[in-house]
Amino acid sequence: xxxxxxxxxxxxxxxxxxxxxxxxxxxxxxxxxxxxxxxxxxxxxxxxxxxxxxxxxxxxxxxxxxxxxxxxxxxxxxxxxxxxxxxxxxxxxxxxxxxxxxxxxxxxxxxxxxxxxxxxxxxxxxxxxxxxxxxxxxxxxxxxxxxxxxxxxxxxxxxxxxxxxxxxxxxxxxxxxxxxxxxxxxxxxxxxxxxxxxxxxxxxxxxxxxxxxxxxxxxxxxxxxxxxxxxxxxxxxxxxxxxxxxxxx
Length: 249
Known about the structure:
Elements: H1 10-13, H2 20-26, H3 33-56, H4 61-78, H5 90-102, H6 110-116, H7 124-134, H8 141-167, H9 171-177, H10 189-197, H11 201-224, H12 230-244
Helix pairs in contact: 2-3, 3-4, 3-8, 4-6, 8-9, 8-11, 8-12
């Protein structure tokens, strides 16, 4: 998430025509495949932060999951008259919408959930495992939401990196080297992996360096899609790095 090498300017590599706001704007079309696809993409990407907020607000897992369903189902109607591009950071925009949603009786949206044909993209077991691993029990709802959002940025980047490895026929190497994206190997680990892959340790060291660089690029790309102008990117990069380090937003 930090700058490690010269790169193109944000204006050169990203025109902001494809941001998370473009998905929200797609919801302004009440019918059609595009709106349906965009709603499902939004729910898949941000289900976990909303779920973490609900759980740290005191809801049990089943209720928190139902709350997520209702939140995303009502989102097209909630943003129908909003131009979200004027709302700054995307994570703040989603949280503003969530807080407004929670002032209502969210159970009244059960019919909307059925009409949207929405289903939970993750199992409760998976969500609870992530929650226990990622957050302290003392985390506030807002802290849990923002940290989950930051972790989701990295999770999406990792998913894309894994797909690239699979497409290039290097998935086995990726699986073995993935733990070293964020940590250094202990003595002897390179040698063990080199035996498994029948690859010289020096080649593995180079592969890890390239994977880390590509991981940073993909995380930067994911983060770029959550801001509306280049000036916001540096501050958002710093903010999410702090969140990943456990600092209070």
